[in-house]
Amino acid sequence: MTREEKNQAIEELQGMLKDTNVVYLADASSLNSADTTKLRGECFKSDVTIRVVKNTLLKIAMERTEERNYGELMDVLKGQTAMMTSTVGNAPAKLIKEFRKNSERPILKGAYVEEAVYIGDDQLKALTEIKSKEELLGELIGLLQSPMSNVLGALQSGGNTISGLVKALGERQD
Fold first, then answer.
1. Each residue of 40-68: pLDDT tens digit?
2. pLDDT band with cut points at 50, 70 and 90 for residue 147
3. Are 76 and 110 in contact (CB under 8 A)?
4. How many domains is the chain partitioned into structurally?
């Protein structure tokens, strides 16, 4: 690989890192070609981008991405590295967990999700439980609507009862 090709690859990786707040690094070595194809297919279905990267080039790209602090994530750049990016924080973790029901790999090396760094395969469970922005907004809207629904329901049922009571009392007096 020439110096120009390396610089181009670094710039491309740097662009990918700037475009996302979700970066997972995994070890997918020892997967056979059928499993690798299956993993790529699952990534495509889940809207997760996967790319095998050179560790030194990714490390340089991470260092050059000034807006983000990848910290300890650069320390896991050893051996084969597959970089997974997504717009949803837990999508790659769920994909890895589901894929590992039938295979030993990929093994999570580390992840950068919304400015937080997770190191090691033992963090996979915690990463699958992270809620996406859409899930959090849905829960928030549900929580905000719940008290209003209860008040409106009480007023509506109470309104019918009160009007019925007033009507019944009015008829009694007549």
1. 999 999 999 999 999 999 999 999 998 88
2. confident
3. yes
4. 2
Rg (CA), the chain: 26
The residue behind tokens 């070609």 is 33
Continuous segment of H or E residues that includes residue 27:
strand 22-27
SS3 of residue 75 by DSSP: helix
Q: Are residues 107 and 152 in the same domain?
A: no
* For the chain, percent of residues with pLDDT exceeding 70: 86
Other beta carbons within 10 Å of 128:
16
Q: Cα–Cα distance between 110 and 58 in angstroms, integer? A: 14
pLDDT of residue 71: 87
Which residues, at least 6 apart from 121, have a Cβ–Cβ distance to it below 8 Å? 107, 108, 109
**Residue 113: strand pairing partners:** 22, 116
Question: Three-class SS of residue 116?
Answer: strand
Distance (Å) of CA 129 to CA 90, 95, 110: 7, 12, 16
| CATH number assigned to the domain comprising residue 42 | 3.30.70.1730
Is the pTM higher than 0.85? The answer reads no
